[in-house]
Amino acid sequence: MRHSSNVIHKLYIGCFVAIVLSAVILRMYKACYTGVIYDEALTYFRFARDFNSAVSDYSTTNNHLLNSVLIYLSVNIFGQLGNFMGVPAIRLPAVVFGIVYVVSIAIIIEAALRSRPLKLLVLALCLSNYFIFDLSILARGYAIALGAVYCELLLVIFYPTLLKDYDKSMVFLLSALNFIALGAMLTSLYTIVPINLAFLAVMYHTKNACVATGKPSGAFKKVFEMGSAIMCFSSLPLALLYINVIKTIISAAAVNSEINEAPATILKALITEGLFSKWGFHLWNLEMITRAIMLPVMLILAVLFILNIIVNKKTLTPAALIILSVLAASFSLAYIAHTAAGLSLGFTRNHVFWLPMIVLAGGIIADGALDARIIGTWFMRAGTCLVCLVLIILTAGPLASLHVVTTYDWKPQSVVGPLLRELKKIDATRRWRVGFSDKLQFDLFPYLFYNGEAYRISDSDVAVYPISEQNQHPENLYEYDLFKKFDCIVALASRPRRPQI
């Protein structure tokens, strides 16, 4: 019996480690294989080639300041088309923090859940969701902020057991992670603030528990000091990072009260695009009815679950309690900011910070439902568990592609890198003229990133069209099966031009 238990434990550890390692390796592979997309190329050309532009130009939402600074440093070290261990220099900061996210979420899941099969399922979903996967390798601020957010959540979870004697180190680490998350993506504020508040609550409880009953613990004073220190050490570097942006917005406001100039784009994204605006509350790539029902059902289940625990005096793992609290506080903060101040999360992709936590919440409820000590009747346990499993699987959505950026309409944009590598196989010495259909105008910037010169379709050796136009261009199609996954077709000119000297 004991031998069988050891075998099962070793099998579980092997599967868990294999999932984590696969997630790291596959992220590095996709970062190398898939082509740079429009937003990445625009970030590089407009902001990341010059340090001053990276920290002062906020004319579009493309400039995630800390991301632009890190791209500037990476490209200056390895070169525009250089790489480190196969990862393109432009994507290196994103991939590093994508790996930080992978490791952090794996440890969080191990601490929060009890059921081994459920741990493996939730881990696989949190690491393979296409939305999270794509945004954790692209050269944008999302990957950096995502890694910082979940690394910070990890530190808060382990504070009572491993880190309670390292308060000064915690101040430094949390301040640094606040700076990284908010410096890379301001909209991570909706998760960063609740995580910091959770840390102060956990710290207060821990300090109180360490003092004998009847003696003053001084916990409140300690929490106040730590909270003030974290706020100061986070705010000062953020103010320095954003100082030029703030000056730009103030200057524009002074010249034109309507702020119709450069900063209008970011202000519009943060203020006028409501949380429930045309972008919608999109957490799933499913039909509208699924999106409309999924979140309320999950929240109702969570409330009923917590009430049942309180009434019956049952307990969750400390990590599970922290995660549910942070998620509830995060939603509440977003709702209050939207209704009271008219603020929003901006574009749909900013919800990437919530997705892993929602999947985790579903896993926590399902984990509790499997425990007879929390929910007594087998019927209620089975029903709750089934509903939660369906919810977390649907929430996680489709699995990521290893070759194509499937998020939004970015699939055709990611064709440029693989296309140029394929052309190099045909003739490595030739400078190929590649032209793009008008419907693929967003492919132009990625092409300029790799090749430096644009061509019209009529002047090209190679023409790229959306796959919807394949009946209009049946001749000279090249490697149809290779490029159809990018929703593109590639046509070679019947009489290739001579290479330029």
3D architecture notes:
The chain is mainly alpha-helical and 501 residues long. The protein is 63% helix and 3% strand. The protein has helices at residues 2-33, 38-48, 51-56, 65-78, 92-112, 116-128, 130-135, 141-163, 167-184, 189-209, 219-255, 264-272, 288-311, 318-341, 355-369, 378-396, 416-426, 444-451, 480-483, and strands at residues 83-84, 87-88, 434-436, 462-466, 488-492. Strands 3-4-5 form a three-stranded mixed β-sheet, with no helix packed on it. Strands 1-2 form a two-stranded antiparallel ribbon. The protein is globular and about 75 Å long.
The overall pLDDT, averaged over residues, is 78
Distance between the termini: 75 Å
Helix fraction, binned, reads 55-70%
- pLDDT below 50 for ≥5 consecutive residues: which ranges? 253-293, 495-501
Reported for the largest beta sheet, the result is: 3 strands, mixed
Strand order of the largest sheet: 3-4-5
The counted number of beta strands is: 5
If you compute it from the alpha carbons, what radius of gyration comes out, rounded to the nearest whole angstrom? 25 Å
Portion of residues in beta strands equals under 5%
Name the helix and strand elements from N-terminus to C-terminus, one letter apiece: HHHHEEHHHHHHHHHHHHHEHEHE
Class inferred from helices and paired strands: mainly alpha
> Tally the helices: what do you get?
19
Gross geometry: globular
